[in-house]
Amino acid sequence: MLAEDSVLLREGLTGLLGHCGHRVVAAVGDAEALLAAVGEHSPDVVVTDVRMPPGFQDEGLRAAVRLRRERPALPVLVLSQYVQRSYAGELLDSGDGTGLGYLLKDRVGQVEEFVEALCEVAAGGTVVDPEVVRQLLRRRRDPLERLTPREREVLALVAEGRSNGSIARALVVSEAAVGKHIGSILTKLDLPPAEETHRRVLAVLAYLRA
Known about the structure:
- There is one protein chain.
- The protein has 210 residues and is α/β, with parallel strands linked by helices.
- The protein has helices at 7-19, 31-41, 59-70, 85-92, 111-122, 130-141, 149-159, 164-171, 175-188, 196-209; strands spanning 2-3, 27-28, 46-48, 76-80, 100-104, 126-128.
- A six-stranded parallel sheet has the order 2-1-3-4-5-6, with helices on both faces.
- Helix 7 crosses helix 9.
- The two termini are 39 Å apart.
């Protein structure tokens, strides 16, 4: 089962897997279609991208987490351009931790490497790109270490319950500057897409836990 929004890459992977002796029972371009196709075909292994329609954020990875929650033994290989830490840890913790893979596209240097990883995951093994491991470990050590000193100041004031206007007055900057800092903080903390007030609460929780 293959989920990839790029038609060229989707067709290329379908042809590649077929050439290597594997049968792609369905190839889809969005997360909802992935969920439906897995229910219909019950594949031996799922290969999915992270960013897919409609939001092109982490729909594919969230779908993978949902599939593992509903089918803990379903092997899943995530093939992505980057590390999406907000759900990667949850995916790798799903089920009993077997039959999982997370590889970065630009680090899969050879066809044989990719196919071997896919077979390993399908057989119940776990294959994780070293960069994924490094970033997950770094986040668990200190979720705030990616923030600049000014962003830490802003987050500390957010934790006090202050509005953007109050923060701007305290730091003698414009509200627009505060808004940019908060946007950067939410991005660097890899908080899942949600209503902004909810994301501010999650950011405060990350600050209090650090």
